[in-house]
Design a protein that fits this description.
73% helix, mainly alpha
Length: 147
């Protein structure tokens, strides 16, 4: 599960990149990460309330990821999707998927590294590893969309 400090940093990165006019595929990486973090927290909330049903967990993920549907259905002139495709898939949707996978993988890598070492390698490693991973993936999407 992603840590709260990670989510704040991710949300900050999302807001800053959107304000600077960064491409939607780069913003999608951060959006995918924050959606995964919010989904995990919601599922954990229900587990703490002794609601440990797999369907509730699936519903938590489905509801949070469904929040992007209005972006495609709305008619806002500033938000236009499906303009850039990567591997034949909408760049925004692909980057959301990759951002979610990046956060998930980086949290798993952190846990593996911590178990192997017995403790974190440096202070705030739990925050630094996901954020740096997301920056790297964002930069890769930036290079892909600029080409």
């Amino acid at each position: 599960m992603a840590c709260p400090v990670c989510a704040v940093a991710i949300a900050g990165g999302l807001g800053i990149s959107r304000a600077l006019g960064v491409d939607d595929s780069v913003v999608g990486v951060w959006l995918g990460a924050i959606l995964l973090a919010l989904s995990q927290w919601t599922a954990y909330f229900f587990e703490k309330k002794n609601i440990k049903n797999i369907f509730v967990k699936i519903l938590c993920y489905a509801c949070w990821y469904a929040t992007i549907i209005p972006l495609y259905l709305g008619s806002t002139p500033k938000i236009i999707f499906n303009t850039n495709k990567i591997i034949g898939i909408d760049g925004f949707l692909l980057s959301i998927l990759v951002g979610s996978l990046t956060l998930f993988t980086s949290v798993k890598v952190y846990r593996f590294m911590k178990e192997k070492n017995g403790k974190p390698h440096f202070p705030y490693e739990k925050v630094v590893l996901p954020i740096v991973s997301l920056f790297v993936v964002s930069f890769m999407f930036y290079l892909i969309t600029k080409a």
